[in-house]
Amino acid sequence: MPWIVGVSGASGTPYAAAVLRALLEAGEDVDLVVSRASRLTLLDETGISFRDAHWREDLGDWLARGADGKPDTFAPDLGRVRYWNAGDLAAGPSSGSYPVKGMLIVPASTACVAGVALGLSKDLLQRAASVTLKERRPLVVAVRETPLNGQTLRQLVALDDAGASVVPASPAFYAGATHIQDLVDFVAGRVLDAAGVRHGLYRRWKGELGGGARDE
Known about the structure:
Blueprint: E1 3-7, H1 13-25, E2 30-34, H2 36-46, H3 55-63, E3 81-85, E4 102-108, H4 110-117, H5 124-134, E5 139-143, H6 150-161, E6 165-166, H7 180-195
Parallel strand pairs: 1-2, 1-4, 2-3, 4-5, 5-6
Helix pairs in contact: 1-7, 4-5, 4-6
Family: Belongs to the UbiX/PAD1 family.
Catalytic activity: dimethylallyl phosphate + FMNH2 = prenylated FMNH2 + phosphate
Domain Flavoprotein: 2-194
């Protein structure tokens, strides 16, 4: 069964790319939903224009870049990815009978958080998240905004109460980051930790200064 990965319009498309790369490297299948707003963010942050008719080509270009925009050595297996248009409310992930392991929203904008918390289902991303909650499947929401106002905080509490895991996109520095990609990978790794997906994206804390090693 696949994981649904929803990409909303918040800044932080490198986080989504890192999660997608790690899922594919772990041999996981992915159902991808890219919101309309996130296409504008992706264009602004990477220069990539994500097109429905050429999604495989555009996704490959996106995942083949590091957080600094330079070419990476990763060669994604896009045969494991199924793409759904965010406006297609008749798509598979809109139904609870469609088998998936769970859903990761990365990055999650405050507008996306509000829509999911209120059950608005205005597009496939929000609908899939609502279905994930009602089916009691894992939902990980990587919110990327600062500062957070009281309304958004209450909505995040509502998501937590509904069973979602809220993972703020907050990089840590104890893992020995030396490049921006290390910080991105830490956040992506924490998202995957919340979903229970094995990865080796960052060095885990071992309880001693300077200890720990990158997971294999």
